[in-house]
Amino acid sequence: MEIIFLLESKHGHIGDVYYDWQCPFVPRIEEGVSIENIFDEGRFVVSEDDKIESKVDNVEAYVKSLLWKVTGSTWCKKDEYYMLISLLGE
User: Fold this and answer.
1) Residue 28, exposed/middle/buried by CB under 10 A (0-12, 13-18, 19+)?
2) pLDDT at position 55, please?
3) DSSP 3-state assignment of 66?
4) Which of 10, 29, 57, 85: CA 20 to 30 A from 72?
5) What confidence category does residue 90 fall into, taking pLDDT thresholds of 50, 70 and 90?
6) Distance between terminal CA atoms of the chain?
7) DSSP 8-state assignment for residue 19
8) 69-85 burial string, b = 16+ CB within 10 Å, else e?
9) Are 36 and 64 in contact (CB under 8 A)?
10) Looking at residue 56, what is its pLDDT?
11) What are the residue ranges spanned by the domains of the chain?
């Protein structure tokens, strides 16, 4: 199942993580999430909407420095169903 994680912080939308989820469960609302390996596997796409690169010196270091929590989730459909999960970094 494909999951797209939307990463948000006080600076706005940071980017999206595209993930082929192989676990039998998904993170729940308010649950903490570790996202350290997203850069190693090339799944992270930096947002251009909120110009995050002009607000922080190093996007990767900034993302890794935050604690992430699930704030919302929903099912979506384009060609096939996928899950959209919002994460807030603080």
Assistant:
1) exposed
2) 87
3) coil
4) 57
5) very high
6) 27
7) E
8) bbeebeeeeeeeebbeb
9) yes
10) 87
11) 2-89
Query: How far apart (Å, rounded) are the C-alpha atoms in residues 12 and 28?
Result: 22
pLDDT band at 75 (very low <50, low <70, confident <90, very high): very high
CA distance 16 to 47: 7
pLDDT digits (tens, 9 = 90+) for 21-59: 787 788 889 988 887 778 877 788 888 877 888 888 888
Residue appearing with tokens 């060609």: 79
12 neighbors 49 (Cβ within 8 angstroms): yes
The residue count of the chain comes to 90
CA dihedral 28, 25, 60, 89 (to 10 degrees): 0
Tracing tokens 């270091």 back to the chain, one arrives at 61
Q: Which residue has tokens 């909120």?
A: 50
Amino acid at the residue 64: K
Residue 89 structure tokens:
């970094």
